[in-house]
Design goal:
Blueprint lengths: L1 H50 L1
């Protein structure tokens, strides 16, 4: 019974680490996308100011 408990504990630990990793990657990707959108907005603003 102890071996099964140890395996389940290790599996649970790996699952928690994996979930934390996925959340971190999600937030990193979101930050990159927001920066890209911000750059595009700046380019649009520059183009509009040049036309005026």
């Amino acid at each position: 019974m102890d071996a099964v408990g140890a395996i389940l504990t290790i599996f649970f630990f790996i699952l928690v680490v994996y979930l934390i990793s996925r959340v971190a990657h999600f937030f990193n990707d979101t930050e990159i996308r927001l920066n890209m959108i911000e750059k595009k907005l700046d380019e649009i603003k520059e183009n509009l100011s040049k036309k005026n």
